[in-house]
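An instance follows:
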Amino acid sequence: MADSDANGGQAADAGAIGSIFNAEFVVGRSLGPPGGEMGRFRLDPDEAPSIHRALVQLAENMQSDYQLAQRLCDAQPPAQDPASLSFTKAAVQSWEISVDQAEARWQLYRGLAERVGKAIGEYQAADEQAGRDVNDAGGDQGDTDKGFA
């Protein structure tokens, strides 16, 4: 990321991106009292898988953009005349900036997808453990026709 401009705009952007990179996702449980730590997000267990799939797809798209931007930086001038050499040099310098930005976007969405995937896995593991605990404690064993004593 670039350093702060005169108005601090880029520094503010860097801080916002930094907080997204460090976001914590929780599926199906409370985050605690309101006004708690920033950067924590609760996802509905039914919606989390589709959010995860969307983030994975976005990360894949951003990776493709990054790879395309890298290939643009390998551009060669069509001729070895001064104008072609100068134009190609300027274009490649511009595209190198795009490479950095494309990589940052790819890393952002990849990190978000990983965090949401981790939260889903933790939720599923806790849900399965709770089911085992209920069964171990003599809870529902699948016999629904026994009625009440």
